[in-house]
Amino acid sequence: MHFGVITMLALRNLRRNLRRTILTATAFIIGGALLTFAQTFGDGTHEQWIDSGVRTGSGHVTVEVPEFRVSRKIEDRLPGGTLQLVRKAVESSAAADRVTDVFYRLTINGLATSASGARPAQILGVDPTIEASLSPLDEQVVEGRYLKKDDRLAAFVGAGLVDALDLRIGSRLVVMAQDAHKEVAGQLVRVVGIFRTGIAELDDSVIHVPIATAGEWLGTGRDLTNVGVMVDSSVAVPGLVRHLRRELAEPIAKGDATVMGWREAMPSLHAAVLVDEWGGYLMLGILFVIVGFSIINTVLMSVLHRHREFGVLQALGLTPRQTASVVLVEGLLQTVVCALIGVGVGLAITAAFSGGIDISELYNDQEMQFSGVAIDPVIVPMVTPVRILYILGFMMFVGIVSSVYPAMRAATIDVTESMKFER
Amino acid sequence: MSESNGYAVRTAGVWKIFQQEAEEVQAVRDVSLTIERGEFTALAGPSGSGKTTLLNLIGGLTRPTRGEIWVAGSELGALSNRELAQLRLEEVGFVFQAYNLLPVLSALENAEFPMLLQGTPAAERAARVQELFERTGMTGLEDRRPGKLSGGQQQRVAVVRAVASQPALVLADEPTANLDSHASEALLDMMAELNRELGVTFVFATHDGHVMERSRRLVRMVDGAIDSDETRS
């Protein structure tokens, strides 16, 4: 195949047309750098959405009874022992490195009543210590405080619900729901803190109470409705889901539990991430079609100016296919080098913004929310090896595809005519 | 389709017809010719007489419309494009009017190029090229790129490139057309010496009277056909 000779010719030709090579390379490097930064920034944004979503919601991975997500009924709950099973599974060597927290909740739809009226409420029995370190709600306190470890009859209530029920710090509030015996049960609690996220869905309905209080009130003891697992990055979720499904195979087979990643548990958030991702891909696709055409143009011009050279190569013993490969190898060499440099520059830009980019001004300092989730306006770009490999692969694909047509032109020249060609 | 190896080239009833718009152009008409190994032959004739086309046909750069061509025992019509490329690499050397050196390679690298494609070991390549460079007065110019060589020097490199891989046949298309008389004479001396001492078979297409004089066989072509074929002592 004369690969060594072809590579030598390709390298010499790239060096011979240095200005043209530099111009093409510059376009490709800039494109690669933009692509890399746009992707890491996009991935950081999505990670932010996911992180905020799973903290407010049910974790990166949730274990619950299959029917619970739809029914939200107390009878669709996990036995208390499930928490130990999950803890054992995540502490195993296969998952321990990536798991950052495990939390558990007793979540129920019910009513909140005060002297001023009643409102439907989403009541979450939580472990105050764990929740304070995980949930973003404790950072949205507008009055009072979040729940404490020793609290018993305390409630942390959304500002919308507080207004609707005319509550204030210290007010008494009765939460009511169907208990484990299918009886309607009430529990008197006292407001210790009020939060405001700006998201009506949360502010108008969410109440946190200590999980021990909820267990006593609903007669569920140490049972739970869901166990949430947090990991250091959403990319670890599919692996953890597979691992937990293996470890919890028995209760899953019996229909007593299901393991869901955030994509299944929060489909609207997943859809939003996908739509945004594909929108980004579309824009970058357009950018690279333009870059690709500029490469085609440059390489084709080079080929058209080298008809005589390709004729000579074939006269001396190269086949048309080998002649085409001279052009392809030129494109490939340039692409590989430029892709690596472009990605390197993109990663350097990403590193320069590793502290995060505050985009709150774009929202006029309003609360950023997405799909019912409050979002931190400081976006930290996210670098994953898989994404970098995708970018390199995509850039090389564009570079090689852009060289195919000029290579075909080089292969199909009329050798005798090309010898007549005068520069 | 292999024939005896006593000759370098044999053509039998070769035609090459080009279609130019609605007109049919018979560039080569019924040419039958045998060139023995070690010959120093000129194909002569005015422009458009078909000598370059015949040279291209013999070199396997284009295929005949009709007829058969044997080069070093192989019938070219029976060869695939890949096999034809291999035959050009192994058995045919080309010298072109416009030198056609590869601009990205030095004089030495250009001369070595066919051997590089053949996979000849580096030491053997260097030895062969150095010997030919000495014979042709090119020593000291090995590292120069074609753009830094005179026309005569470039053509000498082209001749070295053509003969260094020891092909059965060297086809030279108007090799002296772009050279002054002094350079032209020097080039012919060099090719005659290579023919005499190394037994290289040369076939020229030319309308240069001087080349015709130096050839030992002169085949004249008119309108694509052989008009005369004379061998000198």
SSE layout:
The complex is a heterodimer of chains A (423) and B (233).
Chain A: H1 3-16, H2 18-56, E1 61-64, H3 68-71, H4 81-91, H5 93-96, E2 99-114, E3 117-126, H6 128-134, E4 141-144, E5 154-158, H7 159-164, E6 172-178, E7 184-195, H8 200-203, E8 206-210, H9 211-218, E9 226-231, H10 237-247, H11 249-254, E10 258-261, H12 262-265, H13 267-304, H14 307-315, H15 320-352, E11 357-358, E12 368-370, E13 373-375, E14 378-379, H16 385-411, H17 415-420
Parallel strand pairs in A: 3-8, 5-7
Antiparallel strand pairs in A: 1-9, 1-10, 2-3, 2-6, 2-9, 4-7, 5-8, 6-7, 11-14, 12-13
Helix pairs in contact in A: 1-15, 2-13, 2-15, 2-16, 4-10, 13-16, 15-16
Chain B: E1 7-20, E2 23-36, E3 40-44, H1 51-58, E4 66-71, E5 74-75, H2 81-91, E6 92-95, H3 107-118, H4 122-135, H5 151-164, E7 169-173, H6 181-198, E8 202-206, H7 209-214, E9 217-222, E10 225-231
Parallel strand pairs in B: 3-8, 3-9, 6-7, 7-8
Antiparallel strand pairs in B: 1-2, 1-4, 4-5, 9-10
Q: How would you summarize what this structure contains?
A:
The complex is a heterodimer of chains A (423) and B (233). Chain A has helices at residues 3-16, 18-56, 68-71, 81-91, 93-96, 128-134, 159-164, 200-203, 211-218, 237-247, 249-254, 262-265, 267-304, 307-315, 320-352, 385-411, 415-420, and strands at residues 61-64, 99-114, 117-126, 141-144, 154-158, 172-178, 184-195, 206-210, 226-231, 258-261, 357-358, 368-370, 373-375, 378-379.
Kindly describe this structure.
The complex is a heterodimer of chains A (423) and B (233). Chain A has 2 domains: 3-53 and 270-420, no CATH class; 58-265, no CATH class. Chain A contains 17 helices and 14 strands. Chain A has helices at 3-16, 18-56, 68-71, 81-91, 93-96, 128-134, 159-164, 200-203, 211-218, 237-247, 249-254, 262-265, 267-304, 307-315, 320-352, 385-411, 415-420; strands at 61-64, 99-114, 117-126, 141-144, 154-158, 172-178, 184-195, 206-210, 226-231, 258-261, 357-358, 368-370, 373-375, 378-379. The longest helix of chain A has 39 residues, at 18-56. By secondary structure, chain B is of the alpha/beta class. Chain B has a single domain (7-231), classed as 3-Layer(aba) Sandwich (Rossmann fold). Helices cover 36% and strands 29% of the residues of chain B. Chain B is built from 7 helices and 10 strands. Chain B has helices spanning 51-58, 81-91, 107-118, 122-135, 151-164, 181-198, 209-214, and strands at 7-20, 23-36, 40-44, 66-71, 74-75, 92-95, 169-173, 202-206, 217-222, 225-231. Chain B has a 6-stranded mixed β-sheet with strand order 6-7-8-3-9-10, sandwiched between helices. In chain B, a hairpin with a 2-residue loop joins strand 1 and strand 2. The mean pLDDT of chain B is 90. Chain A binds chain B through residues 2, 5, 9, 12-13, 15-16, 308-309, 311-320, 322, 415-416, 419, 422, and chain B through 53, 56, 59, 61-62, 81-82, 85-86, 88-90, 94, 96, 98, 100, 102-105, 113-114, 116-118, 161.
